Amino acid sequence: MIETLLFCAALVSVAVTTGIVVILVKESLAFFEHVPLSQFLTDTQWTPLFSDAHYGILPLLSGTLVSSAVALAVAIPLGTIIAIYLSEFAPHALREIAKPFLELLGGVPTIVYGYFALLFVTPLLQALFPQLPGFNLLSAGLVMGIMIIPYVSSVSEDAMRAVPMSLREGSYAMGATRFQTALAVVTPAAFSGIAAAYILGISRAVGETMIVAVAAGMQPNFTWNPLEPAATITAYIVQVALGDLPHGSVAYQTIFAAGLTLALVTLFFNVLGHLLRKRFRQAY
Amino acid sequence: MDELRLRELRALITARKRWNVVFSALGVVALMVGILTFTTLFVDMLIDGLPRLSRDFFTAFPSRRPADAGILSAWVGSTLVMLVTAAFAVPLGVAAGVYLEEYAPRNWMTDLIEINVANLAGVPSIVYGLLALGLFVYQFGLGQSILAAGLTLGLLVLPVVIVATREAIRSIPGAIREGAYALGATPWQTTAHHILPYSLAGILTGVIIGMARAIGETAPLITIGALTFIAFLPTPPVSLDPPFLSFDWLMSPFTVMPIQMFNWTSRPEAAFHHNAAAAGLVLVVMTLSMNALAIYLRYLLRRRIRW
């Protein structure tokens, strides 16, 4: 009896996944009855709310990829360096202080980062690039990168700490320095865990909403230039949800089609991460 | 000749060791980038927002005039939504965690559930918003209510609670279980009398972290269509007249702290940005103190418990 109850509770997680898939697919199918898939994938304009409606996902996809790329260009190097430093170099006391502090950094609400990106980082960048518009992918991406650092660093560090001591001792015994050991022994041995950390970072960047919605503008723009304003998939969903769309209209269905695209992109990276982990897993 | 070779070798070792120092410096710099950014963010908000933080700010409704605007409806909304979230996610998450650790047989069903929990933790929060929009708002007809919002965030923190519960339970040595079973306890007695009490602090840590995440979450609530301008309060849940308890507030429209901040941030006037900074300060202090509490609890736990 109790076991059945507990089982049902555990089953809720499966129900949630099923619910997500059913809702996204159902509304997207309704959307694709109005809009051919070929237009969705190849049109370079996304203007569902205009009278001359175009439904090309490319502008939203490019915005998402550019802001994520900027974020990862910040988060992956910094996160990796922090992880290697904390795991292999830092004195014990520093690690005990730095780890919780980094965790706090990851706990700051994203809307606060959005505020920071729009009203502090963008004016700062405008001092460097005077022609930079008030909304741009660069400042959103940079702040997003800072936000993602803790995710990358903490998962990579855990992976490095899980590498057995004997490997390091073997390396030291051969006369390698700390730096050589960290780079040539520990990092490769922990690679599957580090890859998982990168994938987690990518998922966070692609799915991040409020920073880009606030700081990158909500104008769909097919561009690969981070200095321009553009909308991401997530920002578009926010923009539509802020308005008052009638339930069942094509414009209402677009956010589910956009959401499905987002879910597929995240799924792609998660599968990739799974394969990487399997390929590089090392057992001790 | 030997002397020369030795000197060469020493130079080589020194050069190699120099990289240790270079990398350590790099590590400290990288760490400082994170810490300095956060400090800048906090100080920036403090400068802009602190003058706005008065008692009136907490007791006033949003207004068209920035100087009169406050966060009353936002913090009340946040509190009520969090109540629903906790009431939904905590029992369900703990039950699921207990099932997976204590009851689940090793079969494909259990594998499916485990893979599911792991994947759900990686789903972007806005996708939960879309699920809630289709399911809670329209399918169940809950509308843009506190109940719908609480359930949405409940789904979002469910994986966090499940994972925390499982980790807390896993750290309990098997000998405790075996002792209980040896004395004839049923699996449920073992769970209720031993496993749950011993893992309570660990579970609580996870719940606090999950709630801290939920309270700062904006995107899913905007997606379900939360309003940004609310100038009234929901019906109070407790009243002095019979029947004393009322659940009308569950169906009330709402706004929450992060949405209020988003609204103020996206306005062009600088005066509203100061309001946004003040709301951001309140939000950051709330989430950070919750996270700090969780970290402290975990620290206590690690020190106190010696099996």
Task: Please summarize what this structure is.
With 284 residues, chain A is mainly α. Chain A has helices at residues 2-34, 37-42, 58-89, 92-107, 110-128, 137-161, 165-173, 178-189, 191-207, 210-215, 233-242, 250-280. Helices cover 76% and strands 0% of the residues of chain A.
Can you put this structure into words, describing what you see?
The complex is a heterodimer of chains A (284) and B (307). The model of chain A has no long low-confidence stretch (mean pLDDT 89). The two termini of chain A are 42 Å apart. Chain A is mainly alpha-helical and 284 residues long. Chain A has a single domain, classed as MetI-like fold, CATH 1.10.3720.10. The longest helix of chain A has 33 residues, at 2-34. Chain A is built from twelve helices and no strands. Chain A has helices at residues 2-34, 37-42, 58-89, 92-107, 110-128, 137-161, 165-173, 178-189, 191-207, 210-215, 233-242, 250-280. Chain B has a single domain (65-304), classed as MetI-like (MetI-like fold, Orthogonal Bundle), CATH 1.10.3720.10. In chain B, 73% of the residues lie in helices and 0% in strands. Chain B has helices at residues 2-49, 55-59, 72-103, 108-120, 125-139, 146-170, 174-182, 187-215, 219-223, 257-265, 270-304. In chain B, helix 3 packs across helix 10 (257-265), helix 5 crosses helix 6 and helix 6 (146-170) crosses helix 8 (187-215). The longest helix of chain B has 48 residues, at 2-49. Chain B is flat, with a radius of gyration of 26 Å. The mean pLDDT of chain B is 87. Chains A and B meet through helix 1, helix 3, helix 4, helix 5 and helix 6 of A and helix 1, helix 3, helix 4, helix 5 and helix 6 of B.
